[in-house]
């Protein structure tokens, strides 16, 4: 591992999920499906759903406080907050509201959107600010409330998604760089495989001028194409990140994938020859929480004592865009 002037340490994690649980049995009362069908095809048993009064900002703030506390710093020590989300409470963004809730008066805050890859894209983006010496203490949050945009009458999609938030604190480290390698990718030619699209309706302002006003539509997904994309591209991008990190897959202690579908997780692990006991997952309990899935699974593994300081983690996110990416890092 090469030493550089300013490296990165990942020193804290936190997560938060709504109290409301929708299990497969209850879902079967809403749409024509079965618990066996859902679990056998996705690995999901239940998902957490935000209530009408529960906001993305609230969940993200809870996760952030926990991550900051674990890191041993104060919110006022934060220089930057990056919120990865596709479901902000305000279309102008929610990061600044989280900054205010935390009392992180010295931090600049902005939203970043890359759907289910969002946390990983935010993680790598934050790392560049640290490596250049601009910021020392950065909070990266992945949070989504996809239940707002799910068609609960569409059994192809409503079985998949849940709500939640996860966060990590990244700090400057002058002795070694614990972000060992990364690779990020996008392919807009496949954009229509997974969308949450705006649908304009014409509103005439004058006899000769109209604008488009409307709202966003429900999530639309071509499940077969997304599955095909993930099982091919995710192992590739992890291998590229490992190459950039100059380490063998045998040195990986934990495989941490976006929690989308158990069959995808299994296929990627087999392709990389990573044994099952090294694969982190909580898909059964939360479903696909989009940008929140990686940091929630990371936080749970850290707090359960599975992940220990110095452990090498190969993380990969993939989703709408289509976007995908991997980061290889040491915890602690």
TrEMBL record:
<feature type="region of interest" description="ACP-binding">
    <location>
        <begin position="259"/>
        <end position="263"/>
    </location>
</feature>
<dbReference type="Pfam" id="PF08545">
    <property type="entry name" value="ACP_syn_III"/>
</dbReference>
<keyword id="KW-0511">Multifunctional enzyme</keyword>
<keyword id="KW-0444">Lipid biosynthesis</keyword>
<feature type="domain" description="Beta-ketoacyl-[acyl-carrier-protein] synthase III N-terminal">
    <location>
        <begin position="110"/>
        <end position="188"/>
    </location>
</feature>
<keyword id="KW-0443">Lipid metabolism</keyword>
<dbReference type="Pfam" id="PF08541">
    <property type="entry name" value="ACP_syn_III_C"/>
</dbReference>
<feature type="active site">
    <location>
        <position position="116"/>
    </location>
</feature>
<keyword id="KW-0963">Cytoplasm</keyword>
<keyword id="KW-0276">Fatty acid metabolism</keyword>
<keyword id="KW-0275">Fatty acid biosynthesis</keyword>
<feature type="active site">
    <location>
        <position position="288"/>
    </location>
</feature>
<protein>
    <recommendedName>
        <fullName>Beta-ketoacyl-[acyl-carrier-protein] synthase III</fullName>
        <ecNumber>2.3.1.180</ecNumber>
    </recommendedName>
</protein>
<feature type="active site">
    <location>
        <position position="258"/>
    </location>
</feature>
<comment type="pathway">
    <text>Lipid metabolism; fatty acid biosynthesis.</text>
</comment>
<keyword id="KW-0808">Transferase</keyword>
<comment type="subunit">
    <text>Homodimer.</text>
</comment>
<keyword id="KW-0012">Acyltransferase</keyword>
<comment type="function">
    <text>Catalyzes the condensation reaction of fatty acid synthesis by the addition to an acyl acceptor of two carbons from malonyl-ACP. Catalyzes the first condensation reaction which initiates fatty acid synthesis and may therefore play a role in governing the total rate of fatty acid production. Possesses both acetoacetyl-ACP synthase and acetyl transacylase activities. Its substrate specificity determines the biosynthesis of branched-chain and/or straight-chain of fatty acids.</text>
</comment>
<dbReference type="InterPro" id="IPR013751">
    <property type="entry name" value="ACP_syn_III_N"/>
</dbReference>
<dbReference type="InterPro" id="IPR004655">
    <property type="entry name" value="FabH"/>
</dbReference>
<feature type="domain" description="Beta-ketoacyl-[acyl-carrier-protein] synthase III C-terminal">
    <location>
        <begin position="244"/>
        <end position="331"/>
    </location>
</feature>
<dbReference type="InterPro" id="IPR016039">
    <property type="entry name" value="Thiolase-like"/>
</dbReference>
<dbReference type="InterPro" id="IPR013747">
    <property type="entry name" value="ACP_syn_III_C"/>
</dbReference>
<comment type="similarity">
    <text>Belongs to the thiolase-like superfamily. FabH family.</text>
</comment>
């Amino acid at each position: 591992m090469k030493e550089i002037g300013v490296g990165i340490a990942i020193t804290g994690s936190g997560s938060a999920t709504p109290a409301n649980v929708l299990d497969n049995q209850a879902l079967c009362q809403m749409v024509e499906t079965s618990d066996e069908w859902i679990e056998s095809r996705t690995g999901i048993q239940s998902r957490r759903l935000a209530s009408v009064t529960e906001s993305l900002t609230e969940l993200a703030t809870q996760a952030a406080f926990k991550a900051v506390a674990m890191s041993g710093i104060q919110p006022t020590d934060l220089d930057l907050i990056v919120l990865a989300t596709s479901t902000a409470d305000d279309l102008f963004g929610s990061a600044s509201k989280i900054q205010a809730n935390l009392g992180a008066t010295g931090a600049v805050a902005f939203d970043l959107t890359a759907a289910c890859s969002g946390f990983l894209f935010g993680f790598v983006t934050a790392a560049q600010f640290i490596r250049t010496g601009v910021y020392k203490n950065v909070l990266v949050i992945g949070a989504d409330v996809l239940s707002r945009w799910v068609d609960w009458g569409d059994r192809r999609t409503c079985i998949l998604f849940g709500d939640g938030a996860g966060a990590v604190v990244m700090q400057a480290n002058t002795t070694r760089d614990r972000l060992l390698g990364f690779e990020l990718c996008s392919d807009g030619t496949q954009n229509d495989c997974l969308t949450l699209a705006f649908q304009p309706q014409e509103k005439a302002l004058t006899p000769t001028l109209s604008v488009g006003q409307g709202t966003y539509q429900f999530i639309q997904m071509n499940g077969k194409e997304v599955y095909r994309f993930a099982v091919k591209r995710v192992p590739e991008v992890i291998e590229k990140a490992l190459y950039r990190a100059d380490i063998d897959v045998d040195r990986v202690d934990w495989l941490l994938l976006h929690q989308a579908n158990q069959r995808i997780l299994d296929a990627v692990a087999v392709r990389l020859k990573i044994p099952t006991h090294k694969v982190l997952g909580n898909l059964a309990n939360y479903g696909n929480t989009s940008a929140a899935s990686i940091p929630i699974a990371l936080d749970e593994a850290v707090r359960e004592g599975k992940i220990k300081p110095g452990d090498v983690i190969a993380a990969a996110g993939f989703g709408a865009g289509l976007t995908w990416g991997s980061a290889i890092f040491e915890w602690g």
